[in-house]
Write a structure and sequence with these properties.
The chain has a three-stranded antiparallel sheet, with no helix packed on it. The model has no long low-confidence stretch (mean pLDDT 90). It has 143 residues and is α+β, with helices and mostly antiparallel strands. A hairpin with a 4-residue loop joins strand 3 and strand 4. The protein has two helices and six strands.
Amino acid sequence: MFFKRHKTLAVLGVVIIFLLIFTLYFQQKKLEELQNELSKVELQDVRIGAGTSKGKLGTAIFGVIINKGEQTIKIATMSVEFFDEAGELSTVHKFFPVNNYSFSDSAALEPAQSKEFGFPIDEIVPENWGGTITSKLIDLKFK
């Protein structure tokens, strides 16, 4: 009796549950693919230094990004954590060592290619920054 009266509602509920499971499955697959591709791209020699970066003299983050994968990267997102004097996380900032929308360097990163980068940080570091950072790649967009 219940099913006859609410047949449309029951079918709609089953369809919604199916779509949710389907969406979660593909999100998990996409996340696994991203982790696989992130393992093929390497950040090397990420350091804090003084010098000129993008035409500005001051403190900057410098490093090298290497594409050991098989796809051309058009955007790479790097997360940098800044720690205070006590070793506690103070702030997190995103940088883009490869960015096809950049005015200064819009070149993509081809397979087996490396690229040096530098980002001025004088205006973004917190006042209590102790001089320590960690960095990692968190996202990639491909051509």
